[in-house]
Amino acid sequence: MTTPAKSEGATLTKDAAAGETLLKVTGLQKHFPIRKGLLQRQVGAVRAVDGIDFEVRRGETLGVVGESGCGKSTMGRLITRLLEPTAGKIEFEGKDITHLGVGGMRPLRRDVQMIFQDPYSSLNPRHTIGTIVGAPFKLQGVTPEGGVKKEVQRLLSVVGLSPEHYNRYPHEFSGGQRQRIGIARALALSPKLVVADEPVSALDVSIQAQVVNLLDDLQQELGLTYVIIAHDLSVVRHVSDRIAVMYLGKIVELADRDLLYKSPMHPYTKALMSAVPIPDPSRKSARSERILLQGDVPSPIAPPSGCRFHTRCWKATEICRTTEPPLLELRPGQQVACHHPENFADQAPQDTVLLRDARKAAETVSEEALAESAATSAAVAAEVGEAAEGLTPVTKPAADRPEPVAAEPLVPAQKNVRAVEEPAAKEPAGSEDATVAEDAAAAESAGAGAADGEAGTEGDAGTEGDAGPDGAEGQESTPK
Ligand SMILES: Nc1ncnc2c1ncn2[C@@H]1O[C@H](COP(=O)(O)OP(=O)(O)OP(=O)(O)O)[C@@H](O)[C@H]1O
């Protein structure tokens, strides 16, 4: 999709310039219980979000990306408090809102709004546009100056619709127009934070840019703060100030937009970025530089040990299998959780033996990409090394890092960066394949089971799936 690049600092309001924190999330977890049997005993849990920390600054846009199933939507529903967290803390404007009840949440519902992915199922087909966009006023018992009708008509024109559409029904609108209606509803109470869950992915490509631009314009006019969730880096690229990359319930990289695009540090980020088509004819070899990740995201019921990405990473060594890398600010404005980051000095240089999985993963990475990876890593590491003379990366000294568990070498010892220069020889598929497949199947069935198990207790309020006649009016209508 093509959207005009956002001008530098275009979204920064006065508050954002001051870097004031609007939302702070610490150690956030959401585990959906898996229940079985007559007694509905808990036999496991889907670890959809498994300990994430981040901040959203007033006036900025934080993009959140990752493959399907990595926990982005669950994170969005946690921070809007449509879901109850299993653990962790959510602070909004310095106030702990982690476990606020319905009454406590009522004032917050005005400040935090959500835009849902599917504009077809998130609008009640039996209500007029006027009723839908005016619903938040009714729910909050607020009467805007000049009356609800006048305010709704104003909101309709703000999002580029005619005020005369007031009495029309959702089916009379196109997908893009419906999403504008959803945006008007979200803006009704002048929220401080808007969480948009895949706001354009259900729309035709030609319409996507219009909606993204509308969000961008509204942010500048109204000083909004956004968390925009997308699986597609091309959507968040143009609207985000910072981007968080999620993988299997964790944030693996969180960086300023330009840093992330210029020199991604997590191999997963690099792989995601290589999947975005680059409309630049001068990059003739762009096609061969693609990194094709092997297999699907593993099961969030039993995520891989250590670094969760190690089963698909072409750089994984023993330490990646045994030790979870913490999210550290290796460069100002760029946090990453990786033992062997791209474009930066190796964090575990002592660990040199590639895992079997890494060798298999390397087969799916083109030689060009591997060579480029090695070359940029070496060059940028040297550059960063010079620049960082005066900087102290926030990493633990090597001596403090846990020693990798000694393991029988699976392949001849290779240095990570050097190893990717020469892709490892082919190896027959190991038994891990079967394990991964089993996990995936278990995840699928358990996901359904867990959803059932949760339905009664959790009341996954206000999702776009609540397409029933009365459930569609957004998060406001469904009590927790
Ligand atoms: N209510 C639920 N009960 C059980 N498991 C759930 C529930 N909601 C989500 N999950 C599981 O949590 C994991 C993360 O789901 P989530 O929808 O947050 O991912 P996502 O990154 O947003 O993916 P997508 O882009 O496909 O929506 C998935 O494995 C999903 O099956």
Structural class given helices, strands, pairing? alpha/beta
* Largest β sheet strand count, sense and barrel closure: 8 strands, mixed
Uncertain stretches of 5 or more adjacent residues: 1-18, 388-480
Give the CATH level 1 class of the largest domain: Alpha Beta
Please give the radius of gyration in angstroms: 23 Å
User: What value does the average pLDDT take?
Assistant: 76
Distance between the termini: 37 Å
Shape type? globular
Beta percentage is 15-25%
Q: What is the CATH architecture annotation of the largest domain?
A: 3-Layer(aba) Sandwich
Number of strands: 12
Number of domains: 2
User: What is the helix tally?
Assistant: 15
Spatial order of the strands forming the largest sheet? 6-7-8-3-9-10-12-11
Pfam family, one: ABC_tran
Protein name: Dipeptide ABC transporter ATP-binding protein
Domain ABC transporter: 23-273
Biased composition (Low complexity): 404-413, 432-454, 464-474
Describe the 3D structure.
- The protein has helices at residues 14-17, 72-79, 102-111, 129-140, 148-158, 175-187, 205-222, 233-237, 257-262, 267-274, 318-322, 356-363, 367-387, 416-421, 432-458; strands at residues 21-36, 41-57, 61-65, 87-92, 95-96, 112-115, 193-197, 225-230, 242-247, 250-256, 328-331, 334-336.
- The chain has 480 residues and is an alpha/beta fold.
- It has two domains: 14-247, P-loop containing nucleotide triphosphate hydrolases (Rossmann fold); 284-391 and 405-439, no CATH class.
- The strands form two sheets. Strands 6-7-8-3-9-10-12-11 form an eight-stranded mixed beta sheet, sandwiched between helices. It has a four-stranded antiparallel beta sheet with strand order 2-1-4-5.
- It starts with 13 loop residues before the first helix and ends in a 22-residue tail after the last helix.
- The protein binds adenosine-5'-triphosphate (ATP).
